[in-house]
Amino acid sequence: MRKESRIFVAGHRGLAGSAIVRSLKREGHSQLLLRTRAEVDLTDAKAVDRFFDQERPEYVFLAAARVGGILANSKFPADFIRDNLAIELNVIDAAHRFGAQKLLFLGSSCIYPKHAPQPIQESSLLTGPLEPTNEWYAIAKISGIKLVQAYRRQHQFRGISLMPTNLYGPGDNFDLQTSHVLPALIRKFHEAKMSASSQVTIWGTGAPRREFLHVDDLAEASIHLMRNYDEDEIINVGTGTDLTIAELAALIAGVVEYKGSLVFDATKPDGTPRKLLDVSRINASGWKAKIELRDGLRQTYDWYLAHTPAAVA
Ligand SMILES: NC(=O)c1ccc[n+]([C@@H]2O[C@H](COP(=O)([O-])OP(=O)(O)OC[C@H]3O[C@@H](n4cnc5c(N)ncnc54)[C@H](OP(=O)(O)O)[C@@H]3O)[C@@H](O)[C@H]2O)c1
């Protein structure tokens, strides 16, 4: 990948896509091809073909997807599997047919079985039942992995698939109806501090363990692998460390300086008991996460305060 290579970042306004754009610009890449959903709806095969035919991207970062937390997945299963299957098929097929040199597909750690041995190795894929609360999304992501592998096998198309752990950082979604646990906790603790509430209620028992990767680390890993990784096997991207939701909540309460009490609502689903990725393969390829969780949380809270007017009112 040269500085003047034509690079398409699909989903460039999203959490992961915007971080990849920031890193590519920081590295001096000048030919970034960026289109909003209104300009090119990636579920529309004709629109995707027109774009690839006109722009002929050489490298593709596929960071576009319909993404959401447990609530959104359970309310809109059809939309999650339909849109993600369509986006993957349209972009991967067009990238091949219009001569892109390489494509990087962003999957997700939810592709692994609910009770996979921890930390989760790439070889655990398709070895057991999935977490039911987001199986529609997971099946679409697994189909994306198999699409990339099939196009490599039949057409020698150089597609690679990354399995990132839970991401967080600037540009995250803080909508309590559709967000993931980390941004939801930042908003809940902040609003409780501003309204002087004596307690914050957190979904679940607080016992599940989760791993969180700052999105700027994910972007660095993506560029590192686009340059240096060219294999059929999927590859995990994470920090290799995890903590309980209760520990995360206490860390965020500290960053937000919320002094009230934390109440756990065990009537709400916990999801998978633990989801820690084995990152020894990507570490062996020369990449390791750099951003400590406490520093990343601090930076994300500052971004939230700077980008959410209501937050400081
Ligand atoms: N967030 C996580 O914790 C996490 C963890 C592991 C893996 N991942 C993977 O990382 C990738 C990106 O996730 P994210 O968290 O960055 O999601 P996000 O913030 O929701 O960004 C998704 C992007 O995709 C775009 N998009 C969705 N449908 C589209 C369509 N039909 N046409 C054109 N653009 C469309 C969205 O456009 P708009 O801006 O118009 O909505 C948005 O910019 C996904 O493949 C996801 O599976 C995410």
Bound molecules: NADP nicotinamide-adenine-dinucleotide phosphate
Termini separation: 45 Å
Assigned CATH superfamily of the domain at 7-171 and 212-241 and 274-291? NAD(P)-binding Rossmann-like Domain
What's the CATH architecture name of the domain at 7-171 and 212-241 and 274-291?
3-Layer(aba) Sandwich
Spatially, the strands of the biggest sheet line up as 2-1-3-4-5-10
Q: Kindly identify the CATH topology of the domain at 7-171 and 212-241 and 274-291.
A: Rossmann fold
By helix and strand content, what is the structural category? alpha/beta
| CATH classification, class level of the domain at 7-171 and 212-241 and 274-291 | Alpha Beta
In percent terms, what proportion of residues is strand? Answer: 5-15%
Q: List how many beta strands DSSP finds.
A: 13
Unreliable spans = none
Give helix and strand order, one letter per element, not per position.
EHEHEHHEHEEHEEEHEEHEEHHH
Can you walk through the features of this model?
There is one protein chain. Helix 1 (15-26) crosses helix 7, helix 2 runs parallel beside helix 4 (77-97) and helix 4 runs parallel beside helix 5 (135-155). The mean pLDDT is 96. The strands form four sheets. Strands 2-1-3-4-5-10 form a six-stranded parallel beta sheet, with helices on both faces. A three-stranded mixed beta sheet has the order 11-8-13. With 313 residues, it is α/β, with parallel strands linked by helices. The chain contains eleven helices and 13 strands. The longest helix has 21 residues, at 77-97. It is globular, with a radius of gyration of 19 Å. It starts with 6 loop residues before the first strand and ends with a helix. The chain is 43% helix and 15% strand. It has helices at residues 15-26, 45-55, 70-75, 77-97, 135-155, 181-194, 215-228, 245-256, 280-284, 293-307, 309-312; strands at residues 7-10, 32-33, 59-62, 102-106, 159-164, 166-168, 199-203, 209-210, 212-214, 235-237, 243-244, 261-265, 274-275. It has a domain at 7-171 and 212-241 and 274-291: NAD(P)-binding Rossmann-like Domain (Rossmann fold, 3-Layer(aba) Sandwich), CATH 3.40.50.720. NADP nicotinamide-adenine-dinucleotide phosphate (NAP) is lined by residues 11, 13-17, 36-37, 41-43, 63-67, 83, 87, 106, 108, 164, 166-167, 180.
